[in-house]
Amino acid sequence: MRSPFVFTIVAPEGVFQARFTLEAGRHYWPGEVQVERREDQGPHDHTLTVTATRLPSEDDFRELAARAATRSANPPLDPLGRVLFLLIPF
Question: Residue 90 contacts by C-beta under 8 Å, 6 or more apart in sequence?
Fold first, then answer.
């Protein structure tokens, strides 16, 4: 099953965003992440938004976005794992 996913970091100086089409079982790599730098953020169906005091470097953002996409594409099956996933999404 494929589903859209948007990872966003919002900081006072702007917004970094990465879009994915998630595929179950897939691992996403930082080199696959295309960073969109925006001044504002629009609504999306499946979005993980992180509020920060400053934007990370683009390399750090790519790593975080790839990790969040991989975890979202492969959610844990056990109940405790699901709770931890909700608390620690990337």
Answer: 7, 48, 64, 67, 68, 71
3-class SS string, the chain: CEEEEEEEEEECCEEEEEEEEEECCCCCCHHHCCCEEECCCCCCCCEEEEECCCCCCHHHHHHHHHHHHHHHHCCCCCHHHHHHHHHCCC
Residues of the chain with pLDDT under 50: none
pLDDT (0 to 100) of residue 2: 74
Confidence (pLDDT) at 38? 74
